[in-house]
Amino acid sequence: MTTMPMTMPAAPRALGLARLALAMLLLLMTSLAYAQREIVVRDDLGVEHRLSAPPRRIVSMLPSLTEMVWVIGAGSQLVGVDRYSDWPPEIERLPRLGGLDDAQIEAIAALQPDLVLGSLSARSLERLQALGLRVVRFRSETHADVQRTLRLVARLLGKEEVGVRAWERVERELDAAAARVPAALHGARVYFEIGGGPYAAGTSSFVGQTLARLGLVNIVPAELGPFPKLNPEFVVRAQPQAVMGVQRELASLAQRPGWGAIPAVQSGWLCGFESPRYEMLIRPGPRLGEAAEALVDCLQRLPHTPRSSAGKDSR
Q1: Gap between the Cα atoms of 120 and 113, Å rounded
Q2: Considering only CA atoms, which of 46, 77, 288, 265 is closest in space to residue 174?
Q3: To 10 degrees, what angle do helices 143-156 and 160-178 make?
């Protein structure tokens, strides 16, 4: 009796090994493709977020972040915004969900967002994290912060290149605005008031950095922080040659004690802005370049002869 060989013939064995190798290759390619699709972002709290796909339902709890989502091209994914978001007009239909300190937690959770964007300083959002929602938080005090946040938001939405191009547009607009500043104002000392005071935009803030790009000198030094609270006497002593802020406040500057002697008040070098144009100026978002253009538009309308020579420290 002849004993049959127990080993597989060479040809079928080779075919089986080839099929196994092909299956392993396909598995490896699938794993690599998944890894490439995975979105990884570390927010300004240092929290790493991993998403298998771009979010489809977004809640934005800060106007500047709302604007970033829209500019990046994901406005249709917004399902709710904070009470102060007002641009673009298309978001008017969206639910309003409170602000920095009074976010409507239950209402946000009911919308079932797969991404919540918020400020680093909004502690109320911690309750959303406790409920298991993905909350990504950002700091936006400087131009560099805005650039980074724009890039990260774009990455979260699977459109990082769009974020890069959006910032490049901001840079071009800032340069174009700087080229239009009247020569008489180069080096002029400026006070930019936040709201009706006593807060101001400091040199280290994104507003202060825009002023510097325009060739203006901020009276608030960097060491006081981005948006310091000032004693009104500080402004009187600094003798700014131009003042910028909310229109309703600038109309009555001369009535403040000692402010009638400020060169800006005497010369009429006052740039007052009505809302929502003023709101655009104080938002660290993708419209920084447009804000710079608005500042220069006002500078061009000012009287050509200042009270004191531009750039001279009159303290």
Answers
A1: 19
A2: 288
A3: 150
Maximum CA pair distance of the chain? 122
Cβ distance 264 to 240 under 8 Å?
yes
Distances (CA, A) of 79 to 57, 65, 88, 168, 212: 6, 14, 14, 28, 37
Token representation of residue 151:
């890039």
What radius of gyration, in Å, describes the C-alpha atoms of the chain? 27
Average pLDDT over residues 169-195: 97
| Amino acid occupying residue 241 | Q
Dihedral (Cα; 52, 58, 62, 65), 10-degree rounding: 60
Positive or negative torsion for Cα 59, 60, 61, 63:
negative
Query: Are the C-beta atoms of 173 and 214 separated by less than 8 Å?
Result: no
pLDDT, tens digit, 9 for 90 and up, residues 82-125: 999 999 999 999 999 999 889 999 999 999 999 999 999 888 89
The tokens for 205 are 């803030």
